[in-house]
C-alpha cells in the first residue's frame, strides 16, 4: 500500500549512555516526529511511504531528508523553506530516574511556518491508499492547521481513509483557548476515518462525560463522528513493572488486547509503533483480535530500542506474537 503522513520533522539530540545533560559533551543526532515514526514502522512492514512536511533550505534540511530516506520513506513531497527545524534533547532514564525530554523552539520551524500554498496536495493524493495526520499540526500555527484541514478534506473527498492522531499538547496551545482547540478538533474529525487517542482526550478536551465507562464513552465517540474505529493504549505499573494494553473500538463494540509487560529502553515512539500496527492490520482486513495482538507487539518492540522511529519488521513483530510476547529468536 501507499501511505502518506502530514506532520513536522524534528531534530532529536540524545544524550548517550544514560548521562544527564550536564554530564555530556556529545549527543547523538536523529530526525523524528509522529509522522516520521509511523511511516518508518510502516515502511519496515513493507508499505510504500511518503512524508508531507517542510524542512529548512540548508544543510540541516539536507541531513534530515537523508535521514528520512534511510528510514524508508520518500521525501518527494517535502518542501524546502526557511532556515530552522524544531529540536529536542532526550536524557534516557535508568532505574528510578524517568526519561526527560526538553523541547526547543518548534513554532518558528520550516514546518511550523508553512501554509497550504506550500504543498502539492493533489500530487500527494494521487494513487494514495491511506493518510495519517498528526494533531500537533492543529496547534503549531494557523498555517499548519489550515493545511491539515485542506489535506484531510481532499483525502476524504477522494475516498482515501484518514487516520488522525489527537496528540494534544497543552504546552503548545497557550495562544488558543480550550473552546478554540475543541472546535479545531471537531473540524478535523469530520473527514477522519480512524482516530488515535485516549480517554483523557475525550473527557478533558472534547467534553465527554467522565462518569461513563470505557465502552460507553468510546462507542459514543465512534457513533458521534461516524468513525471506522477509535484506538489507543493504557499503561499501568504494578510492583515496579510497567504493563501496556491496547484497545480498538469499532461500531461493533470495544475490544482490548491482552496485557503486555514492557522492558523500556526508550519509551519515545512507542505509541507511534502501536498506531502503525493498527493501520497495517486494518488495511490488511484482519480480525480485531489479530490487529490488536500485532499492534501491541509492535509497541513492545519499539520500547526495547533506542530512538523514536520503530524499526521492527512485520516478520519480527509476528515472531514476537507467536512466542506469546516473548523474545523468541528469529533465525534468518
Summarize the structure.
This protein has 332 residues and is an alpha/beta fold. The protein has eleven helices and 15 strands.
What is Rg? Answer: 19 Å
Form type? globular
N-end to C-end Cα span: 25 Å
- pLDDT < 50 runs, ≥5 residues: 327-332
> What does the largest sheet look like?
11 strands, mixed
Number of H/I helices: 11
How many β-strand runs?
15
- Range of strand content: 15-25%
Query: What's the helix-strand series?
Result: EEEHEHEEEEHEHHEHEHHEEEEHHH
Helix content: 25-40%
Structural class: alpha/beta
Could you tell me the mean pLDDT? 94
What does this structure look like?
By secondary structure, this protein is α/β, with parallel strands linked by helices. Helix content is 35%, strand content 23%. The chain has helices at residues 34-44, 59-70, 121-125, 137-140, 142-157, 178-189, 199-205, 214-224, 270-283, 288-303, 314-322; strands spanning 2-6, 10-15, 28-32, 48-55, 73-74, 78-80, 87-91, 100-103, 130-134, 162-165, 194-196, 229-238, 241-250, 253-256, 260-262. The strands form 2 sheets. Strands 1, 4, 5, 6, 9, 10, 11, 12, 13, 14 and 15 form an 11-stranded mixed sheet that branches. Strands 3-2-7-8 form a 4-stranded mixed sheet. A hairpin with a 2-residue loop joins β12 (229-238) and β13 (241-250). α1 (34-44) crosses α9 (270-283), α9 (270-283) runs antiparallel to α10 and α10 packs across α11 (314-322). It is globular.
List the helices and strands and how they pair.
Layout: E1 2-6, E2 10-15, E3 28-32, H1 34-44, E4 48-55, H2 59-70, E5 73-74, E6 78-80, E7 87-91, E8 100-103, H3 121-125, E9 130-134, H4 137-140, H5 142-157, E10 162-165, H6 178-189, E11 194-196, H7 199-205, H8 214-224, E12 229-238, E13 241-250, E14 253-256, E15 260-262, H9 270-283, H10 288-303, H11 314-322
Parallel strand pairs: 1-4, 1-9, 2-7, 4-5, 4-6, 9-10, 10-11, 11-12
Antiparallel strand pairs: 2-3, 7-8, 12-13, 13-14, 13-15
Amino acid at each position: 500500500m501507499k501511505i502518506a503522513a502530514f506532520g513536522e520533522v524534528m531534530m532529536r539530540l540524545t544524550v548517550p549512555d544514560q548521562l544527564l545533560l550536564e554530564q555530556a559533551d556529545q549527543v547523538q543526532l536523529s530526525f523524528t516526529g509522529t509522522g516520521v515514526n509511523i511511516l518508518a514502522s510502516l515502511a519496515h512492514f513493507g508499505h510504500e511511504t511518503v512524508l508531507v512536511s517542510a524542512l529548512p533550505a540548508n544543510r540541516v534540511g539536507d541531513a534530515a531528508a537523508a535521514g528520512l530516506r534511510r528510514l524508508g520513506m520518500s521525501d518527494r513531497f517535502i518542501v524546502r523553506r526557511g532556515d530552522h527545524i524544531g529540536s529536542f534533547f532526550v536524557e534516557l532514564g535508568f532505574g528510578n530516574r524517568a526519561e526527560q525530554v526538553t523541547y526547543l523552539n518548534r513554532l518558528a520551524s520550516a514546518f511550523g511556518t508553512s501554509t497550504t500554498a506550500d504543498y502539492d496536495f493533489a500530487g500527494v493524493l494521487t494513487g494514495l491508499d491511506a493518510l495519517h495526520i498528526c494533531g500537533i499540526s492543529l496547534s503549531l500555527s494557523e498555517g499548519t492547521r489550515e493545511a491539515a484541514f485542506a489535506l484531510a478534506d481532499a483525502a476524504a473527498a477522494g475516498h482515501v481513509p484518514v487516520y488522525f492522531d489527537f496528540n494534544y499538547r497543552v504546552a503548545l496551545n497557550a495562544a488558543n483557548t480550550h473552546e478554540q482547540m475543541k472546535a479545531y478538533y471537531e473540524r478535523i474529525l469530520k473527514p477522519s476515518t480512524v482516530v488515535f487517542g485516549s480517554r483523557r482526550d475525550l473527557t478533558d478536551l472534547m467534553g465527554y462525560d467522565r462518569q461513563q465507562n470505557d465502552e460507553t464513552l468510546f462507542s459514543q465517540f465512534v457513533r458521534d463522528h461516524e468513525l471506522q474505529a477509535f484506538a489507543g493504549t493504557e499503561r499501568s505499573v504494578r510492583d515496579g513493572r510497567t504493563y501496556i494494553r491496547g484497545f480498538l473500538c469499532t461500531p461493533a463494540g470495544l475490544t482490548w488486547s491482552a496485557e503486555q509487560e514492557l522492558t523500556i529502553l526508550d519509551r519515545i515512539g512507542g505509541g507511534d509503533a502501536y498506531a502503525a500496527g493498527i493501520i497495517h492490520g486494518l488495511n490488511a482486513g484482519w480480525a480485531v483480535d489479530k490487529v490488536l495482538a500485532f499492534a501491541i507487539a509492535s509497541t513492545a518492540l519499539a520500547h526495547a530500542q533506542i530512538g523514536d522511529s520503530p524499526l521492527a519488521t512485520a516478520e519480527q513483530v509476528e515472531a514476537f506474537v507467536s512466542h506469546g510476547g516473548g523474545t523468541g529468536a528469529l533465525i534468518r
